[in-house]
Amino acid sequence: MRTVGVEEELLLVDPDTGEPQAQSAAVLALAEADDAHRGLFEKELFGQMLEFATHPQTDMNELGAEIVRCRKEAARLAEESGCTVAALATSPLPVSPTVNVNHRYQWLAEQYGISTREELVCGCHVHVSVESDEEGTAVVDRIRPWLPVLLAISANSPFWQGDDTGYFSYRSQVWDRWPSAGPTELFGSAERYHRRVADMVATGVILDAKMAYFDARLSERYPTVEIRVADVCLHAETAQLLATLARGLVETAAREWRAGVEPVNHSVSMLRLATWRAARTGPEGQLLHPVSMRPVPAEVVVRELIEHIAEALSATGDLQPVLEALAELRRRGTGAQVQRALLEQRGSLRDVVTACVRHTQG
């Protein structure tokens, strides 16, 4: 059974005002002083962000429980530093991000200017184990048209600098400003994948292979495919659902590869349109169908995603839990839907953030 790990980026905010706080250094210092949590949390580009990574898990309930534990521990450490954490993919309130000090982040700030300074966004990265780079490349090629569906399910960033953007996932629009971000063409082999990344680095436009910010890529650190298309999810249960769907997609793609099934040969330009549509309307409107690339109701596309990976989900005992989690997501709404409902009820983005702090910890 394939293992799955999740990396989540959380927003550090003032518990009373909801405004982002550049307190990551203080939180990380507390974490490093505690043997039980040393190495659990990592510095990110901005002082207003905190990242954690779960252990690889085969049981999705165990993975979900670990996400909850990590979020609670992040909140505990943040509170000792005078702030708290919110699983929000963008800050609803205006913010002037503070770039953390190290060589890499300073290079980004100098190379990309204002684009770097506006990249205060929080994502969820799902790592699914693969047997080899060859299998991983085959998986990356075959999951491409389904990734916008994962974005729609995770969408959790409707607000930007105090305004409603009209998007469900505005994070994805900001993230795609990086020149190496977004969907990819078909690679066909691990050799061609690595050659393409090396060619990108050789241009000098990106610093190194870690900056191949593809929506799905071979991990630089682990023997995994890393799916990076999603917003950080407001609720831990949605993050668990996202990870389960990701594993189902990876296993299905690997089976197709072994069976000689060719990947769907959509162009990058069409995949970008599908990603934009998912970011704009989330699961409320229409999505582009992963095969036909024509607009159909989002619920139809989600249903076809489940049909596409049903055999893999059944093999791991995840089919019924996924159906139940999707039903709960429809009832409760995505993070973007919850945030907009909170604003309508309370009339204040400050109150939206403070309510989302509570949602973050369940």
Automatic annotation (TrEMBL):
Pfam families this protein is in? GCS2 (PF04107)
Q: Quick check: keyword Ligase in the entry?
A: yes
Keyword Nucleotide-binding among record annotations: yes
Cross-referenced InterPro entries, in alphabetical order?
A: GCL_type2/YbdK_subfam, GCS2, Gln_synth/guanido_kin_cat_dom, YbdK
**SUPFAM superfamilies in the cross-refs:** Glutamine synthetase/guanido kinase
Question: Which PANTHER family does the record match to this protein?
Answer: GLUTAMATE--CYSTEINE LIGASE 2-RELATED
Q: What is this protein called?
A: Putative glutamate--cysteine ligase 2
Annotated organism of origin = Streptomyces thermoviolaceus subsp. thermoviolaceus
Show the taxonomic lineage.
Bacteria, Bacillati, Actinomycetota, Actinomycetes, Kitasatosporales
